[in-house]
């Protein structure tokens, strides 16, 4: 029996905490930060800033304990409705053993919103506390003038009641280049490259379907923790997702060879025994030092023999735009495949 807890829908006057998880923002990003925070305020939200949000001190002056205490304060504060870190950070896993998950379980569930290293904490909240969390674009990408539908979907998703449903599909275009918020604080998403989702292990013409509870995040961090006490994916499936899981992962900094190692380690640890399907985001790094071993080769080596469907180059992660994926929600993904290319796809997500 599923026991996922969905935070209350956000409304005008809801309080959002903006805090860093492992490192504050450098001064060159403060202009962009002011713009996106004002955007939240213009939507009617009450915004509170974390103590370390605008501090980028050396590690010896701003340590994991300080960040853990700050986050715990927001997680336990009954007036806070959502937490939106501006960016992911680097070492959010440092604070995992410093969080009191028993106390968090007793608190009012709150939305944690974002991707990259935000997913490290989000997955732990879902796995250990059964809180639904939102994997999506980070706050810094949510300029008030942004019109990209995936960005706007975030604010829609945060208003949904438990039991609500929504549908998404592949983007038409993605943005290849990284944004430069320090140089242009008002930069908007400017996708230009045709999106092409692909299927790794079903190449004939067919329709594939996978269903289960969504769970996932950044392979660089979450991939190291799926078999740890903080995520314990097998236990989460047994307790909260007996119907199985749709695991989604995306790569930020791993070379193709390292991607293969990470995925093979998950396979050897039995993580894939608990899933009904795997969805991988577009990778920022597609070539290794050895021309013969690229990202596609890495996936073939690690996942080529899997019986469950494997979709890759999906709209997840560091190559924008980002789907809105609710950890803990039920999802059915249906995709029409022809010669390994996804011609059309729909993700039907229900907060149940």
UniProtKB/TrEMBL annotation:
Pfam families: Peptidase_S66, Peptidase_S66C
InterPro entries: Carboxypeptidase_A_C_sf (IPR027461), Class_I_gatase-like (IPR029062), LdcA_N (IPR027478), Peptidase_S66_N (IPR040449), Peptidase_S66C (IPR040921), S66_fam (IPR003507)
Domain LD-carboxypeptidase C-terminal per the UniProt entry, residue ranges: 211-333
UniProt GO molecular function: carboxypeptidase activity
Transmembrane segments annotated in the record for this chain: none
Annotated ranges, domain LD-carboxypeptidase N-terminal: 16-135
SUPFAM superfamilies referenced in this protein's UniProt entry, alphabetically: Class I glutamine amidotransferase-like, LD-carboxypeptidase A C-terminal domain-like
Keywords tagged on the record: Carboxypeptidase, Hydrolase, Protease
PANTHER family: CARBOXYPEPTIDASE VC_A0337-RELATED, MURAMOYLTETRAPEPTIDE CARBOXYPEPTIDASE
Family assignment from sequence similarity: Belongs to the peptidase S66 family.
Name this protein carries in UniProt: LD-carboxypeptidase
Species the sequence originates in: Pseudoalteromonas arctica
């Amino acid at each position: 029996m599923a026991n996922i807890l969905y935070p209350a829908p956000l409304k005008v006057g809801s309080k959002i905490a903006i805090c860093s998880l492992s490192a504050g923002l450098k001064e060159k990003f403060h202009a962009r930060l002011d713009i996106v925070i004002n955007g939240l305020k213009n939507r009617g939200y009450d915004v509170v800033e974390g103590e370390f949000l605008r501090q980028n001190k050396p590690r010896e002056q701003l340590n994991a304990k300080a960040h853990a205490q700050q986050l715990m304060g927001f997680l336990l504060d009954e007036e806070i409705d959502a937490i939106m870190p501006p960016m992911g950070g680097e070492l959010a896993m440092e604070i995992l053993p410093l969080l009191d998950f028993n106390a968090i379980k007793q608190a009012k569930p709150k939305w944690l919103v974002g991707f990259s290293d935000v997913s490290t904490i989000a997955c732990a909240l879902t796995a250990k506390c059964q809180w639904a969390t939102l994997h999506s674009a980070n706050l810094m990408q949510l300029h008030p003038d942004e019109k990209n539908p995936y960005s706007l979907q975030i604010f829609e998703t945060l208003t949904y009641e438990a039991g609500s449903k929504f549908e998404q599909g592949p983007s038409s275009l993605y943005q290849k280049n990284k944004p430069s918020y320090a140089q242009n604080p008002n930069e908007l998403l400017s996708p230009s490259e045709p999106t092409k989702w692909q299927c790794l292990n079903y190449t004939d013409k067919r329709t594939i379907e996978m269903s289960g509870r969504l769970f996932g995040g950044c392979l660089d961090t979450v991939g190291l923790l799926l078999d740890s006490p903080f995520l314990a994916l097998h236990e989460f499936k047994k307790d909260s997702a007996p119907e199985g899981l749709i695991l989604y992962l995306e790569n930020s900094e791993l070379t193709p060879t390292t991607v293969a190692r990470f995925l093979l380690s998950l396979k050897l640890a039995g993580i894939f025994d608990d899933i009904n399907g795997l969805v991988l985001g577009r990778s920022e790094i597609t070539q290794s030092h050895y021309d013969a071993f690229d990202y596609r080769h890495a996936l073939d080596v690690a996942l080529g023999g899997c019986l469950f469907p494997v979709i890759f180059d999906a709209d997840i992660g560091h190559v924008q735009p980002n789907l809105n994926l609710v950890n803990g929600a039920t999802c059915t993904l249906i995709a029409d495949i022809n010669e390994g290319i996804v011609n059309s796809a729909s993700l039907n997500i229900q907060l149940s």
